[in-house]
């Protein structure tokens, strides 16, 4: 019964956040308090009413690349830890059902069991793997908390830096932005190729 109440509460908060998403974004742009921005970024990562990439870009436009990246990184790490803990200790069965609906995790599932640190970090980098699914799977598979946290933290850095930079510089520095985007795409392509090679070589 308590589990269903938590689920209903999550849905209610998500619904309210969706209804008031525009005032929330305006509030983030108008307030410079680090703690307030951190809390809101964590909530927006926990309740994804809008793509988190847009949140990062908005912060990048308002506060610059460095502080946008720091706030976004900390916010998404807090949200990831909360989801991981809830799935591992409360909603494990619901987590399994959620994962069973995601086809892109079929080969990733085997890999994460054999290489938890590398696979969590790679899952953060590869856009084909839903970020929420990485949190849920780590909780279901009981990946050690610090392994999950360190791998997530490292894996999130490139993407967060990219969107924070683009938020403040896409129109100001289009050439540099294009170079960074191209480099990031090439980096992701190499990661995907390495992932495919490793899964063929080590299916276990």
TrEMBL record:
Compartments where located: Cell membrane
Entry's Gene Ontology cellular component terms: plasma membrane
UniProt key word Lipid biosynthesis: no
Pfam families: VTT_dom
All copies of domain VTT, residue ranges: 50-167
Topology in the lipid bilayer: Multi-pass membrane protein
InterPro entries noted in UniProt: TMEM64, VTT_dom
Segments crossing the lipid bilayer: 6-24, 36-60, 66-91, 133-155, 175-195
Protein origin, superkingdom: Bacteria
Main location: membrane
Keyword Transmembrane: yes
Key words of the record: Cell membrane, Membrane, Transmembrane, Transmembrane helix
Family: Belongs to the TVP38/TMEM64 family.
Protein name in the entry: TVP38/TMEM64 family membrane protein
């Amino acid at each position: 019964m308590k589990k269903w109440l938590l689920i209903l509460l999550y849905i209610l908060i998500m619904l309210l956040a969706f209804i008031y998403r525009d005032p929330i974004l305006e509030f983030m742009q108008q307030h410079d308090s680090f703690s307030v921005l951190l809390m809101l970024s964590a909530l927006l990562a926990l309740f994804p009413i809008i793509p988190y990439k847009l949140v990062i870009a908005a912060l990048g436009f308002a506060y610059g690349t460095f502080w946008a990246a720091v706030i976004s990184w900390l916010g998404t790490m807090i949200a990831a830890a909360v989801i991981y803990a809830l799935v591992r200790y409360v909603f494990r069965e619901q987590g399994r059902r959620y994962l069973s609906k995601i086809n892109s995790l079929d080969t990733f599932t085997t890999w994460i069991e054999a290489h938890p640190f590398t696979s969590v970090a790679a899952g953060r980098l590869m856009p084909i793997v839903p970020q929420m699914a990485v949190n849920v799977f780590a909780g279901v598979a009981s990946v050690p908390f610090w392994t999950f946290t360190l791998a997530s933290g490292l894996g999130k850095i490139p993407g967060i830096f990219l969107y924070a930079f683009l938020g403040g510089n896409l129109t100001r520095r289009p050439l540099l932005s294009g170079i960074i985007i191209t480099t990031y795409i090439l980096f992701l392509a190499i990661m995907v190729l390495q992932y495919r090679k490793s899964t063929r070589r080590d299916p276990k």
